[in-house]
Amino acid sequence: MIEAVKGSRDILPEEIGRWHFVEEAARQTFERYGFREIRTPIFESTELFARGIGEATDIVAKEMYTFLDRKGRSLTLRPENTAPVARAYIQHQLHRRSEVERLYYIGPMFRYERPQKGRMRQFSQIGVEVFGCEHPAIDAETIEMLVAFLARLGIAPVELILNSVGCRDCRPRYREALVRYLRPLRDDLCEDCRRRLETNPLRCFDCKVPADRERMARAPTIQEYLCAACREHFARVRAYLDAFGVAYHVDGRLVRGLDYYRRTAFEVTLPGLGAQNALLGGGRYDGLVEELGGPSVPGFGFAVGEDRLVLSLGAGAAIPDDAPEVVIVALGEGGVTPALSAARRLRLKGRRVIFDPLKRMSDGLQETIAEGDLEARLEEMARA
Ligand code: AMP
């Protein structure tokens, strides 16, 4: 038997209602805030991710599905969608259309990670990107929208963790301070962290090894190194969130793994998800569009793991029932034509109807309708 490839899975009809529900809630919520959907290809030039995410990140270094096509071009199945959306934004010159462009996407991503509960090699993300505005109110409004979206899914209250990861001016100074702290501890660090120390020391905060986590808990945090402009931006984001009544807590150790993040970074975790408890991550990436060859346009966005969302739907989530409302069984060959036409008429009136020509479903038959009574009964059923 050929089975689905390790780390991938089928979503069966019994489960799909939950996925539709989540996606519909996302579309409705985001569109109320002026976001429009964008669909980009599932594969892109490998260079896009190398430049847009950063060679030193785990994603690019170890987790990409990269292959050569028949002409020898290096392509990659998208591991995330911010770089592709930024690529499309630049390619189609969306900055010329409107000053602030709000986009959302829903779709599969691919990462070669060790599969476990809540961690797949093909998984789906729901995300948004706002291009063209560095005002802190954009950060706060987009986070507030996210909280509203989760509340519609019955996921509330949530643990929102917030930080500022600084900018081109202040982050290098912090990076130096962190390296100064870690260098003497180098020999005790795990192999991954020794590598991170050379390539991307901020990533040491993501280490899951308990001894390293303790060391990182004593490390200096970026809060002490933020420049005046970043500090002010962060204070204003928090003030707007306070005004919105959105609860959060600041954790100076939250750093996003992707190089293009600037200033605001945030994450939502859910205790029920087990080891893979991150539900979503996001932040500001003011340098990305320019890095990819576009104009100097700031950006802000987040990506939610849809698989984890579906697992976490709260009791308040009103998942619509997609079971058939009527099953029409033809009792004998002579009943097939009137049964088919009855089914069709009910469908035109918006009913979900299954037609069964083989009497297989006649077990739970609730009523038998003689042909002469069909018309009147259909009218009644359509109205019910
Ligand atoms: P990231 O793009 O790494 O910030 O991830 C954003 C969200 O996508 C995470 O918080 C997860 O909910 C989800 N996610 C990331 N990687 C996986 C994976 N391998 N399997 C399932 N969900 C994932």
What does this structure look like?
The chain has 384 residues and is α+β, with helices and mostly antiparallel strands. It has helices spanning 13-32, 46-53, 58-63, 82-91, 136-152, 171-182, 191-199, 210-217, 228-244, 288-291, 306-312, 336-348, 374-383; strands spanning 36-37, 43-45, 65-68, 74-77, 101-110, 122-131, 159-164, 249-250, 262-269, 278-284, 299-305, 326-329, 353-356. The strands form three sheets. Strands 1-5-6-11-10-9-7-8 form an eight-stranded mixed beta sheet. It has a three-stranded antiparallel beta sheet with strand order 2-4-3. Strands 12-13 form a two-stranded parallel ribbon. The two termini are 47 Å apart. The mean pLDDT is 90. Adenosine monophosphate is lined by residues 80, 111, 113, 118-120, 123, 125, 278-281, 303, 305, 307-308.
How would you describe this structure in keywords?
about 375 residues; 3-stranded antiparallel sheet; alpha+beta; 13 helices; binds adenosine monophosphate; 8-stranded mixed sheet; 13 strands
Query: Largest sheet, if any?
Result: 8 strands, mixed
Shape by Cα distribution: elongated
Question: Which percent band covers the strand fraction?
Answer: 15-25%
CA radius of gyration = 26 Å
Summarize the structure.
With 384 residues, this protein is an alpha+beta fold.
Topology:
Layout: H1 13-32, E1 36-37, E2 43-45, H2 46-53, H3 58-63, E3 65-68, E4 74-77, H4 82-91, E5 101-110, E6 122-131, H5 136-152, E7 159-164, H6 171-182, H7 191-199, H8 210-217, H9 228-244, E8 249-250, E9 262-269, E10 278-284, H10 288-291, E11 299-305, H11 306-312, E12 326-329, H12 336-348, E13 353-356, H13 374-383
Parallel strand pairs: 1-5, 7-8, 12-13
Antiparallel strand pairs: 2-4, 3-4, 5-6, 6-11, 7-9, 9-10, 10-11
Helix pairs in contact: 1-5, 2-4, 5-9
